[in-house]
Here is the input.
Amino acid sequence: MDNQAPGALAVEGVSVEFGGLLALDAVSLDCRVGEVVGVIGPNGAGKTTLFNVICGFVRPTSGRLAVNGSTLRRHRPHDLARLRVARTLQGVGLVQGLTIVENVMLGAQALLRADFVSALFGAWRSSREEARFRSRARALLDQLEIGEFADRYPATLPYGVQKRAALARALIAEPTLLLLDEPASGLSAEDMTELGTFLRSLRDRMGIVLVEHHMDLVMSTCDRLVVLNFGRVIATGTPEEISANPEVTEAYLGEDVREVTRGKDRTSGA
Amino acid sequence: MIKLPPLPAWARLPRQPLLRHLLFAVVGGVFFYLLTQSLSDFNDFEIGELAVYAIAIAGLSLLTGVNGQISLGQGAFVAVGAYTLAELQVHQPMNLVLELLAATAMTAVVGLVIAVPATRLHGPYLAGMTLLFALALPFLSDKYSNFFGGDQGLTVPPPSAPGSIDPQKWLTWIQLFCALVVMVLLANLLSSRFGRSFRAVRDDEVAASLAGVHVARTKVIAFVVSSACAGLAGGLLALSSGVVNTGEFPLSLSIFILAGMVLGGSGTIFGAWWGAVVVVYLPSQWSQSLASTFHFNHLLSANFAVIAFGAILVVVMLVAPSGIQGGFRWLGQHLVTLSTRPEPTGNISVALQHTTEPDQTGDSSAAEQLPSSGGR
Ligand SMILES: Nc1ncnc2c1ncn2[C@@H]1O[C@H](COP(=O)(O)OP(=O)(O)OP(=O)(O)O)[C@@H](O)[C@H]1O
Ligand SMILES: [Mg+2]
Here is the structure.
């Protein structure tokens, strides 16, 4: 693994087919450490599918994938954490039976070294490690201003708190590639602004791929954008270039996101 | 949230998990020691059984309650442990501790062999496979009746007690000691990263795997730990029943263990003890007296315990899904609430409150975002 390699993520010509439906059609995309790359596109464009391919839930029919300099072949989701890739799920994706702080500790799984025997006997090796990661998780929660909810279960908490906890779980393992699937969905305006600032502050440590429908956030946060439509990349460029791109503007921008999603048939017919 | 005044340092439980669990075990040990001192031989026998069932139930509780895998074959793993101990005593007698460890290890290995294919299955399929295992075992012991001792089975002499200690008490203490050790070990495991992965896999395999949990391996570990518990329980059961034959391990044993787990409160260590209390005391005493009170015919009274368990199980799952232990916890919380003035809730900073705008995708669960038939 070569972390000095320029690309935290390289996707080359990846195609995915679901029983005749071409969910991704020769999609290429890369993301370097220090960069926030936005992936936008209407519902069903294939954004989540792209993440599923990267994470090994879906096998591409063709194409090449590399994260942090190592090529991925027949990889499985749990391998990704060790390659320092973290992903948040669309929705919340917290484990309901774990408290918030335990959910965050779960994200550190790939860093834990305690073996089964030391866990079984409650050895120092295991309990000290647990204590260390528990306090690290608490610190992260404090940093995200949700420290007071550390010992609560997700279901009892406001959506915004849960989203932050999910972000904390992705961050605790200090990924070099962070995949965010609609982190702003369901957030208040203030929360969204804070999220944007926070993501920018993470940039120098990792590459971030941001899938998001909220254009304000995308435009203010991303360095580059990739526009997907029906599984194909229809445009790439800086936010300025994208908003100046007539094809994209016509299809996508200038309208409220919800308008776009409701008017999906309209845009596709155009 | 309820804010209680902080306890003084000496009254707080140790934060270090091992110390905390050992403390519980010591208190439990003293309690049971005093109990056996004041009871008759038969009661001692029952307390020994209680300890044995607690081990088997705790193992299943880890598998089902904590890891979400339903097994109907726990009784068959108990049988494997019992036969292992009995065979050892017949062919290769050694130190009792080693024999019990061997019974545990042997059952763990059998569990591993079953787990590798079984953990790929979900819900009813997994239950079906474990049930198949439970059904296959008597068949095997029939087929190789020379080795398994035929209908009479294998006799297991009780362990010899040192000095003038009553043999029954000695055996009960052995069983209790093993149970307490198992509980400490399981509690350690549950408060470690393994317990966290068990729960994560139970609730959300997608989120767990993204966090770096090897889902299949985690399930196998839970299965093997659970079988190991059953194996130890089997070894200890062989010691107290004195004979190991297929009649000792009917399918209803698996059902009783499952029922005990649900009734006691699945997924908790204390729940396993409550479940064991129910399993040990309900069938033998209540069902007999009920059956004779109502003049059930022979067939009905023979099966009455199973029927009663089935009925109670259904009711409990509907009314109190977290079992006896859950009931106690509920009671505890409500007593606390009554005795302290609750702080106003919902005092959450506005910035964090989620706006009621539900995104079109906001609540889709992780699983929905993945191919159901996908190449995992
Ligand atoms: N497992 C699957 N089997 C069949 N079709 C699928 C599967 N997963 C996704 N699809 C289809 O692939 C297309 C892309 O879906 P995907 O979830 O990637 O969209 P998206 O861009 O994430 O949309 P949204 O903005 O709604 O989250 C959709 O038409 C979807 O129905
Ligand atoms: Mg999506």
Q: What stands out?
A: Chain B has 14 helices and two strands. The pocket of magnesium ion (ligand 2) is lined by residues A 47-48, 90, 181 (CB under 6 Å). Residues 15-250 of chain B form one domain. Chain B touches chain A through 54 residues (CB under 8 Å).
